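Attaching the record inline, Q. Sequence:
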Amino acid sequence: MKKVMYLFIVSIALCTGATAQTELTFKSSMISNGGVFKNGNKLKTKEVREVMSENSKALGMYNSGRSLFVAGQVIAYPCAFLLGFDLGTRIGGG
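Structure, as predicted:
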């Protein structure tokens, strides 16, 4: 009976330890780039990758999203400048 009770307690401990997960929160903003937060503290990219290294699928999705974000910024800023410059020139009469 003691062995059964011991195995039951050990299995419960292992199951609860295996399901413990770190909760990350992503906040996006139009003004800033947003960020990933853990317990209210903003994490750097390197720290996020360290936390997500346990889950390869989540890490792959995070890296893919970062790549798309950078590609979008590379396209967006020059286009916004050209559009704004042209519009400003037309309104200013120059």
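The radius of gyration is 24 Å. The beta strands are 25-27, 35-38, 41-43.

More tomorrow.
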